[in-house]
Task: structure prediction
Amino acid sequence: MKVAVSIPDSVFEAAEELAARRQCSRSSLYAQALECLLAEVDADDVTARLDAVYADEPSNLDPALRDAQARAVAESW
Result:
């Protein structure tokens, strides 16, 4: 799909340099950048949902589990 966007000259120039270094097309670079941003936003959404769950639920480890974990960490493997 073709899209027209306006970006600052400095961003365009930096993107051109990066595309040249990565030996990829401008379109490919912008597509990769958007994919990264979309994944990051998706991860932030998951974090926000988990934060909402733990706002109402205790996130402490059960004392027995905490003690077992401490003993396991202290052991040499």
Observations:
- DSSP finds three helices and no strands in the chain.
- The mean pLDDT is 90.
- The radius of gyration is 23 Å.
- The helical segments are 9-22, 26-56, 63-74.
